[in-house]
Amino acid sequence: MFLDSSPLLEDPELLRLRAQGDGLLYLRGLLPRQDVLDVRADVLDVIQRDGWLREDWTAESPTVDQAAYRRAMDADGGNVHELNVPVDLYRRIQSLESFHSLAIHPRLLELYATLFGGPVLPHPRNIARVQVPSPGNKATPAHQDFIFIQGTSKTWTAWIPLGDAPVELGPLTVLAGSQREGVLDYHTAGGAGGMEAYLCGLDYVWTEGPFAAGDVLTFESQTVHKALPNRTEAMRLSADFRYQPAHEPVTPESLQTHGNFIDWPEIYDGWSQRYPRYYWRKDTLELSEFDPLVRWQKHKIC
Description:
The chain is α+β, with helices and mostly antiparallel strands. The chain has helices spanning about 10-20, 35-50, 65-75, 85-95, 95-105, 105-115, 145-150, 265-270, and strands at about 25, 120, 125-130, 155-160, 170-175, 185-190, 195, 205, 215-220, 225, 235-245.
């Protein structure tokens, strides 16, 4: 089970020590439950318009009409099916102001300012996950986020379930302490990201547990994690947000939209003036080049 680190928010030194040792922090109820459920409602509103939820679906259990879902995916032409939803639907989710606003929630920014001991850069490349339990859809394999984002290894991911996520719904499990191994070697695999790490010979323990709306799981970019299988008939909705010390290097790719399926002017169209558009442009950032060979450096095969 995950160890709740929320009591350590009042003791930054102990919080950082736990983060350094485990490579992860689980924070029960860090976000107001209703703030998360409001985003969930907006995402479900986008999804239900496409007509492949079952007639008896509910906000708590968004079950899928499998035949209608497959027709929608087939009509999409096979584009980026690791998203588990048609690309046009994903564009509409990416255009939700509430979704991107959650990533800059004051409680998240406070957490990372405490963890880093200084100013925080939230990556704008926010990722929405719609994990549909359907034949052919694979769970996210074991991997490290660093191979996809690079820049500084001090980047941390916040994995946030958009609703309650019992273990049978397929939340994340994390290989605690695995960040000590550095960047691992990889092979291609099904599921989000399309890459799986070689884990042979690693003596670490997988940590898992149920989540409630408002819980946050955060981990360092070289910490290995994966999704558990979804054993229900309902979708699992979640978000991946990333944060780093503002003075550390960042790749230009991390400042783009996720997947480049839509650009920032389209995303921002019609948003309120409250949202700080292009907030990452206000400071001079240290940019670093993305190296596609990083994941192939060790050539370790089990």
